[in-house]
TrEMBL record:
Domain Sulfatase N-terminal: 27-295
Highest rank taxon of the organism: Bacteria
Pfam family, one: Sulfatase
Organism: Polaribacter butkevichii
Keywords: Hydrolase
Family stated for the protein in its record: Belongs to the sulfatase family.
Name of the molecule in the record: Arylsulfatase
InterPro entries in UniProt: Alkaline_phosphatase_core_sf, GAG_Ulvan_Degrading_Sulfatases, Sulfatase_CS, Sulfatase_N
GO molecular function: hydrolase activity
Length: 466
């Protein structure tokens, strides 16, 4: 009996040592999140003048995703999907400032089970989701314009004897509005997206947005160097953004400027340097990918699926279809949209086409955020093209269909094109079937603004003029 007890003791002791060895060999994880950055707005993706040297460095060291998409183009639903691997209708965070059930936030929980210490700095989660992020290790939420993420991360490592493996998540608030007033770009040298109205104010704000991207990129470079110093080659570094920028036809929209984001991954000895992939991936796929890499349990019921094979160069495809949803952002944006996209075409369903599309930017018109809107209205008084852009912004058809290969900026709606009717019908059915599978009720949670009434900005002005 004594020998059996000794055997059991040493077996348990050895198993514990075995699992510690496994944990020590697992890669450390560093995730750097930008806030409100469209994919096109980075030098890696072809933006001219804009300087993002850290992103360039990451691209040379790892793999760049040409087709990375979020689940929803607003902060809370996007981050909720990232942390759960579930689309908004399934995880419960459909509108902005709504949150998934804590029981569904499995990223931190499953990594902890694998032995990871979770460290979260800045805006990684959103609102009440941050409680989950702070259960283990350091949690630090920053939303003010002052950014000192690198300093806080460094001070934490200096003051604590952290033992691996570590999952370090850093959420930079940039380039979320308000944008910096420390402008480093000449507004007249920048190229504006075709959906914009070219005014002096637009260019000034666009230059400020670019300046914040460069500031974010610089901060990310410091964190990347810290990861190299602390972890050597034993880490995976992922840079991405929660959705597109806060500009018209970007954030709160299902056009690619709203849902297509930068994503670059570096994983020494696993990812071939200086590679690009056209594989379509979604933010719901990040969670199962990290769990796959760390030999953690991957929940069977999630919507996401691992793209580890893409990272390692063993596959050049991942998804055939990308589904995205947007439901609204309290009273500022009440315009639910659903879409399905393949490698060439996109079908968009606007659930309330008889109401105004609107959001914070055209309603509030704040300095260093969206103050350019007044110049748009003024120019539209005499410029038919400007007037048409504003009309297109406010009033949308029930359905939209775009040939992304020939019209990447989604300027020409082909919904009535005879040539494309068969494809439109097929994608309409795909989206309808998917919405049923998701149990998406296409709900509207706030009263919409009917197009036969005043515009939301006029309502806001009247309400706040007293």
């Amino acid at each position: 009996m004594k020998k059996l007890s000794i055997f059991i003791f040493f077996t348990i002791f050895n198993l514990g040592s075995f699992y510690k060895v496994i944990a020590q060999n697992l890669p450390n994880i560093v995730i750097y999140l930008a806030d409100d950055q469209s994919q096109a707005d980075g030098s890696v993706y072809g933006a001219k003048i804009l300087k993002t040297p850290t992103a360039d460095k990451l691209a040379k060291a790892g793999i760049t995703f040409n087709n990375a998409f979020v689940a929803s183009p607003s902060c809370a639903p996007s981050r909720g999907a990232f942390l759960t691997g579930l689309m908004p209708a399934k995880n419960g965070a459909e509108c902005n400032h709504t949150y998934p059930s804590p029981s569904k936030l499995v990223l931190t929980e499953n990594l902890q089970k694998a032995g990871y210490q979770i460290l979260s700095f800045g805006k990684v989660a959103h609102g009440s989701m941050n409680e989950e992020m702070g259960k283990d290790g350091r949690f630090d939420y920053q939303s003010s314009p002052k950014v000192d993420l690198y300093k806080n991360v460094t001070e934490y490592f200096d003051a604590n004897n952290t033992k691996g493996p570590i999952c370090l998540m850093v959420g930079d608030r940039r380039p979320h509005v308000p944008w910096t007033t420390n402008n480093i770009y000449n507004p007249n040298e920048l190229t504006l997206p075709p959906s914009f109205i070219d005014t002096k104010s637009t260019r000034q704000h666009w230059a400020q947005y670019y300046s914040d991207i460069t500031g974010m990129d610089d901060e990310m470079g410091k964190v990347y160097k810290l990861a190299q110093k602390k972890f050597g080659d034993n880490f995976i570094f992922i840079y991405t953004a929660d959705h597109g920028a806060q500009w018209p036809f970007h954030k709160w929209n299902l056009y690619d400027k709203g849902i297509k984001v930068p994503m670059i991954a570096v994983w020494p000895k696993h990812i071939k340097p200086n590679t690009r992939t056209d594989a379509m991936v979604s933010w719901i796929d990040i969670l199962p990918t990290l769990l796959d890499i760390t030999n953690s349990e991957i929940p069977k019921e999630i919507d996401g699926k691992s793209f580890k094979n893409v990272l390692e160069g063993k596959a050049d495809k991942h998804r055939d279809l990308i589904f995205t949803t947007h439901t609204g952002d309290q009273t500022k944006n009440v315009y639910p949209i659903r879409s399905v996209r393949d490698t060439q075409f996109k079908f968009i369903l606007n659930l309330r086409p008889n109401t105004y599309h609107s959001n914070h930017s055209d309603i509030l018109r704040r300095p260093n955020s969206d103050g350019y809107w007044d110049s748009w209205d003024k120019k539209a008084e005499k410029d038919p093209r400007a007037a048409a852009i504003i009309q297109k912004y406010y009033v949308r058809p029930a359905e939209e269909f775009y040939d992304l290969a020939n019209d990447p900026d989604e300027q020409v709606n082909l919904i009535f094109s005879e040539k494309h009717q068969q494809k439109i019908k097929a994608m309409r059915l795909l989206l309808d079937d998917w919405l049923k599978e998701q149990a998406d009720n296409k709900d509207v949670y706030t009263m919409p603004y009917p197009i036969n009434g005043p515009k939301p900005h006029d309502i806001y002005k009247t309400k706040n003029s007293h």
